[in-house]
Specification:
The structure holds two protein chains of two kinds.
Chain A lengths: L7 E7 L2 H13 L6 E3 L7 H4 L7 H27 L16 H23 L20 E6 L7 H10 L4 E6 L1
Antiparallel strand pairs in A: 1-3, 1-4, 2-3
Helix pairs in contact in A: 3-4
Chain B lengths: L17 H13 L4 H27 L14 H25 L9 H23 L25 H34 L3 H10 L7 H34 L11 H27 L8 H31 L3 H12 L3 H13 L7 H4 L2 H27 L15 H24 L5 H11 L5 H4 L3 H6 L3 H5 L1
Helix pairs in contact in B: 1-15, 2-14, 3-4, 3-7, 3-8, 3-13, 4-5, 4-8, 4-14, 5-6, 5-7, 7-8, 8-9, 8-13, 9-10, 10-11, 11-13
Classes of the chains: A alpha+beta, B mainly alpha.
Chain lengths: 176, 475
């Protein structure tokens, strides 16, 4: 997330997720570009309404899983077949059905750790990251729609009217 | 769309608003510790200190301080290990499997249940380290290049699978739980008054600001995590059961072990969730979030899994006779009528008969009955593992080496250690972290709340029900 420096934002505060959902549509239809909407809980369909592209996290997860599977397969086949062949319980040194449990576990482990790391990095999260809060109440019970004034041609007063008409309870100015 | 069938009772009662959810859950985190918490924490910490001393004595002296003998080489250590791992399974079932099945009632209980999972797996792991006797050599279980030639671990052994399964299970559960906590930690961060808590909760909330894009990715990630955790949780107890099933001991060498162990794990896990939740909802005044509806749903799962376990017990007995194998038959006759008959019948009564009482609606919606029966189920599940392990071992192929197992003070104290550890960790969690997933409860509150005041919600519930296309337009 690029940190906006010296940007002026108009922040519409909404009380309800259904209202903010409707407002996103109305505000976009009236030609205003929305920077982002901040909500206290996931609102389904909001990313689609805002026109965000579909997340590609699934692809990352699949690739990490594949890495895990290949790691397990190569580790076990190398050690059991080439490095130190060993017959245990009358089974051939290379008996692949018996590799299934560990191959599965490592697939899951790599998928989970890889995907979560990708999520954290791609969203610019981290223990030392200072959150970009448009309104502190958005982690409690309010929904904030941030509009970057640099990106919009309309006047501030016009945008404020549009926000209020679409259901905003308050409209504040936030400067970063 | 926020539409709920009229016959469903609300999941969150008394018309709680979004702000109420934050307030009710954060109150525990922000306020001073209550008297009940302080007393409970002191007791747990004292038990933990005593237990730790006993565990170190066990390591110092060696496993001879336990009641093991050359016939019964596994007893309370492995019993406790399997028991704790099993308890952990309910948390993942609630957070992953019920998420995939879109069971909204899980939102009020998943946080605490997942915490229980993590702490239970930690307790289980401590028994593995105790059982090793020489825990400083634990790294021998890992496939590391070593100084003994290029000899590797035996990948064909279920004990090595267990190392991978348990450590993966612990890591993935921890990550799943922590990612679920991040938005709620941000809530606490933004409400925090003191500098220290703003800094600490700020660092752990990773700079979360709840943007729509982050939430969309977050939901997607949770779904994939749930998708991979579901087979993971089933695989863990399957592999634990293979520790027994791949051996040639009569009573252990059984192909029904994997489903039977998984059902038993969920059974005991839900009983433990009930015990913890029934206390939490009263002490933290969360009766509106963890309602009788939740308790009843969990009791239904307990009845289902308890019945599966019952069928498994009877199947085992039948197959022991039907197989015509003399040793197999004897192992089971010995379980029911041998010197450990009391353990077998304690298991049968607690696990097969007692959960059937939940067919009565009065009993399964009663808090007292639920609590008592959940304790009984957990006792029964401990006996199940004891019966499987000790009674299968104590009379082996050679009658001259038949023996009994007598627990010593250190068997008991090392078991107490795990309770001290579990409750100390759980109480710390209950004090410093939100015990209910606020973000998820807020997301279901409208569809499940009886009456949400119009002033708060903006649109009254009545309007939403009469005009269900409201949200559809936005898509």
């Amino acid at each position: 997330m690029a940190s906006p420096v010296n940007s002026r934002f108009l922040v519409g505060i909404f009380d309800d997720d259904d209202v903010v959902m409707k407002a996103v549509r109305e505000v976009r239809e009236s030609g205003v570009r929305i920077h982002e909407v901040y909500t206290p809980f996931p609102v389904h369909g909001l990313d689609v309404a805002l026109g965000h592209p579909r997340s590609r996290l699934g692809i990352a997860a699949f690739l990490f899983g594949l890495t895990g599977l290949l790691t397990a397969a190569s580790l076990m086949s190398y050690t059991e077949k080439f490095d130190w062949p060993m017959i245990v319980g009358g089974k051939d040194s290379f008996s692949y059905p018996i590799y299934v449990p560990i191959a599965f576990e490592l697939t899951v482990l790599f998928t989970a750790l890889g995907m979560v790391s990708t999520f954290i990095i791609s969203n610019g999260l981290g223990p030392t990251v200072k959150p970009l809060m448009f309104d502190l109440r958005t982690t409690d019970n309010k929904f904030a729609m941030a509009i970057d004034m640099e990106n919009n041609k309309l006047q501030e007063s016009e945008i404020e009217t549009i926000l209020r008409k679409s259901g905003a309870a308050e409209v504040n100015v936030k400067q970063f | 769309m926020h539409i709920t069938s009229a016959v469903r009772t609300p999941l969150v009662s008394n018309g709680k608003t979004y702000a109420d959810v934050t307030e009710d859950v954060c109150k525990q985190v922000e306020g001073r510790p209550t008297r009940e918490w302080t007393i409970a924490f002191t007791i747990s910490a004292l038990v933990l200190v005593y237990g730790t001393a006993c565990v170190f004595y066990t390591w110092w002296e060696g496993l001879g301080v336990w009641g093991l003998n050359k016939t019964v080489g596994w007893a309370w250590d492995i019993t406790n290990f399997v028991w704790w791992v099993g308890i952990g399974h309910a948390g993942t079932l609630i957070s992953a499997i019920l998420l995939l099945f879109r069971q909204k009632w899980r939102t009020s209980i998943n946080r605490a249940a997942e915490a229980m999972t993590i702490f239970a797996v930690i307790c289980a792991a401590t028994f593995i380290f105790m059982h090793m006797g020489r825990p400083w050599l634990a790294y021998w279980a890992l496939p590391l290049p070593n100084t003994f030639g290029s000899l590797w671990v035996n990948f064909k052994s279920p004990l090595v699978w267990d190392v991978f399964a348990i450590s993966t299970y612990f890591t993935v559960s921890l990550v799943f739980w922590y990612m679920g906590l991040v938005p709620d930690l941000a809530t606490i961060r933004d409400r925090a008054r003191s500098k220290v808590s703003r800094y600490v909760y700020g660092a752990f909330s990773l700079g979360w600001n709840g943007s729509a894009k982050t939430w969309a990715r977050y939901e997607y990630m949770s779904l994939i995590l749930a998708g991979i955790s579901t087979p993971l949780v089933l695989s863990v107890h399957t592999i634990v059961s293979m520790d027994f099933a791949t051996s040639v001991i009569p009573g252990w060498h059984t192909t029904i072990f994997p489903p039977y162990f998984v059902a038993g794990a969920i059974f005991s896990g839900f009983a433990m969730v009930q015990n913890l939740m029934l206390i939490i909802r009263v002490v933290f005044k969360l009766e509106d979030y963890i309602t009788v509806e939740h308790i009843e749903s969990m009791n239904k799962i307990i009845t289902l899994t308890g019945s599966i376990v019952g069928v498994a017990y009877i199947t085992e007995f039948f197959i022991a006779w039907y197989s015509g194998v003399e040793f197999e038959s004897y192992a089971f006759i010995n379980r029911g009528t041998g010197p450990y008959w009391w353990a077998y019948w304690a298991m049968m009564t607690c696990n097969v008969i007692s959960p059937q009482l939940f067919w009565s609606k009065t009993i399964r919606t009663s808090v007292v009955w639920t609590f008592v029966l959940s304790v009984i189920v957990n006792i029964g599940m401990w006996f199940e593992r004891f019966v499987i392990i000790v009674t299968s071992l104590h009379r082996d192929y050679l009658p001259s080496s038949w023996a009994m197992f007598h627990p010593t003070l250190f068997d008991i104290s090392d078991y107490l250690f795990s309770f001290g550890l579990f409750f100390t960790l759980f109480l710390l969690f209950a004090k410093f972290l939100p015990v209910v997933n606020m973000a998820e409860v807020k997301a279901i509150i409208k569809s499940s709340s009886a009456q949400l005041p119009k002033s708060v919600s903006g649109v009254a519930k009545g309007e939403r029900v009469t005009a269900p296309t409201f949200n559809k337009n936005a898509d």
